[in-house]
C-alpha cells in the first residue's frame, strides 16, 4: 500500500465499558486507539501468541468451526482463483481447539498454509469470553463475532451494518474507502462470493494499473480517497455502514473481535435483496423505460417524505404508510407470492 494513503482519524481515551452514543451512529471512520487494551485477551495478545492461544482455549468449545485453508503461495489472500471460476481456498471443519493448536505449531513456519476462521459467533463457540472482554453498547445488542488466523488478506468489501472491529492479538492493517468508490474498486460477482459479500478483485499487495479491460487502472483513483491504519492489540476501528474495508493480518497469529449493528429495526430486510430484485426486473429494460423507473424510485424511495402520500387518506396508504413489523410481514408475503408464481 502506498505510504501516502491518508491516516484514519484517531480517538483516544474512549471508555470501552460505555461507548459514547455518537460512535454508535457513525458517519465517518475512526481508530479507537487502545480502547480495549485492558481486556484480558488483549493483554495476552500483546504478551505473545502462545499466551493468547492459551487464553482462548480456556473458553473454546470442542465444536467444529469452518476453516478456510489456502496454500502458502496464495499469500494469505482469501479470494478467487485467477479465472474467477472458483476460490483460492477450500473450507474444512475442525474443532476450534484443534485449529488453535495448529496455528500454535505453525507460528515459526514461513511456508505454513493460510488458516482463517472467519465470522464465528463468540457466544456460541467461546461462551464466557465476553464476560471480561466486551464493549458497553447501552441498549444496542450487536452481533459479536471473532476472526482467528495467521497472515491473511481479506479483499475490500462492505457490510450493511455499522461495525467496530477490535484487534486483540497480532497486528492488522486496515484500509478503508468511502462508499462512492464502488466504480474504482472493481467489485466481483454479487452472487458467488468468498464469504457472503462481494469483494474487490484488486490484489492490494500487487495492484495492476494497466489500461486493459481485465485490469484495474481506476484503482489509483480509489487510493486517492483511501484511509488506513495499523492496529495493535487493544486498538479498534469504527467502520460505518457500507464503507469498503480491506483487512490484512500482519503476524503469524491474529485475532479480531467485531460487533455489527444496524440503525434500523431487525424486521427490515437487507437492501441487498432490493438490489438483486432491481437487477432482475429493471436493469435490462430498454433505456427509456429505465429512466422512467429511475424517477419512480426517486419519488417513492430516495426522495420520499411526508408529502409523498399526503394526498391519500391515511387509512388507505398501504405500503406508502410508514413500514412497521406487521406491514413488513405482509409485504414480504406478497413478494414471495409474486416471485413464486
Notes on the structure:
There is one protein chain. This protein has eight helices and 14 strands. Helix 1 runs antiparallel to helix 2 (49-57) and helix 2 runs antiparallel to helix 3. 23% of the residues lie in helices and 23% in strands. The protein is globular. The protein folds into two domains: 6-261, Cupin (Jelly Rolls); 271-339, no CATH class. The protein is of the alpha+beta class.
Physical arrangement of strands within the biggest beta sheet: 2-3-12-9-14-7-6-4-5
Class from secondary-structure proportions: alpha+beta
Strand content: 15-25%
- Report the order of strands and helices: EEEHHEEHEHEEEEHEEEEHHH
Number of strands: 14
- CATH T-level topology of the largest domain: Jelly Rolls
How far apart the termini lie comes to: 50 Å
Helix content: 10-25%
Q: Ranges with pLDDT <50 over ≥5 residues?
A: none
Largest sheet, described in full? 9 strands, mixed
- Give the overall average pLDDT: 94
| CATH architecture designation of the largest domain | Sandwich
Total helical segments: 8
The CATH class assignment of the largest domain is Mainly Beta
According to CATH, the homologous superfamily of the largest domain is Cupin
Q: Give the oligomeric state.
A: single chain
- What is the total number of structural domains? 2
Radius of gyration computed on alpha carbons: 22 Å
Organism: Lysobacter gummosus
Protein name: Cupin-like domain-containing protein
Pfam family, one: Cupin_8
Domain JmjC: 115-276
Amino acid at each position: 500500500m502506498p505510504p501516502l494513503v491518508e491516516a484514519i482519524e484517531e480517538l483516544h481515551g474512549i471508555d470501552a465499558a460505555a461507548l459514547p452514543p455518537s460512535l454508535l451512529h457513525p458517519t465517518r471512520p475512526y481508530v479507537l486507539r487502545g480502547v480495549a487494551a485492558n481486556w484480558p485477551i488483549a493483554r495476552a495478545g500483546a504478551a505473545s501468541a502462545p499466551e493468547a492461544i492459551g487464553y482462548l482455549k480456556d473458553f473454546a468449545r470442542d465444536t467444529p468451526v469452518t476453516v478456510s485453508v489456502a496454500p502458502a503461495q496464495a499469500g494469505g489472500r482469501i479470494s478467487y482463483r485467477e479465472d474467477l471460476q472458483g476460490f483460492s481456498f477450500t473450507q474444512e471443519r475442525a474443532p476450534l481447539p484443534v485449529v488453535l493448536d495448529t496455528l500454535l505449531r505453525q507460528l515459526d513456519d514461513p511456508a505454513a498454509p493460510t488458516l482463517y476462521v472467519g465470522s464465528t459467533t463468540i457466544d456460541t463457540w467461546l461462551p464466557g469470553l465476553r464476560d471480561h472482554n466486551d464493549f458497553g453498547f447501552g441498549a444496542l445488542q450487536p452481533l459479536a463475532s471473532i476472526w482467528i488466523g495467521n497472515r491473511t488478506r481479506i479483499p475490500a468489501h462492505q457490510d450493511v451494518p455499522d461495525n467496530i472491529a477490535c484487534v486483540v492479538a497480532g497486528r492488522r492493517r486496515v484500509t478503508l474507502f468511502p462508499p462512492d468508490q464502488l466504480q474504482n474498486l472493481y467489485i466481483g460477482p454479487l452472487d458467488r462470493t468468498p464469504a457472503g459479500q462481494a469483494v474487490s478483485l484488486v490484489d492490494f499487495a500487487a495492484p495492476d494499473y494497466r489500461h486493459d479491460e481485465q485490469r484495474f487502472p481506476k484503482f489509483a483513483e480509489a487510493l486517492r480517497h483511501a484511509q488506513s491504519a495499523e492496529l495493535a492489540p487493544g486498538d479498534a476501528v469504527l467502520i460505518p455502514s457500507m464503507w469498503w474495508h480491506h483487512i490484512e493480518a500482519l503476524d503469524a497469529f491474529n485475532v479480531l473481535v467485531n460487533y455489527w449493528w444496524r440503525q434500523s429495526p431487525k424486521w427490515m430486510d437487507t437492501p441487498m435483496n432490493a438490489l438483486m430484485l432491481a437487477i432482475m426486473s429493471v436493469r435490462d429494460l430498454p433505456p427509456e423505460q429505465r429512466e422512467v423507473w429511475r424517477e419512480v424510485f426517486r419519488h417513492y424511495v430516495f426522495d420520499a417524505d411526508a408529502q409523498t402520500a399526503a394526498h391519500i387518506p391515511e387509512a388507505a396508504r398501504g405500503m406508502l404508510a410508514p413500514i412497521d413489523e406487521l406491514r413488513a410481514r405482509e409485504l414480504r408475503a406478497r413478494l414471495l407470492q409474486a416471485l413464486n408464481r
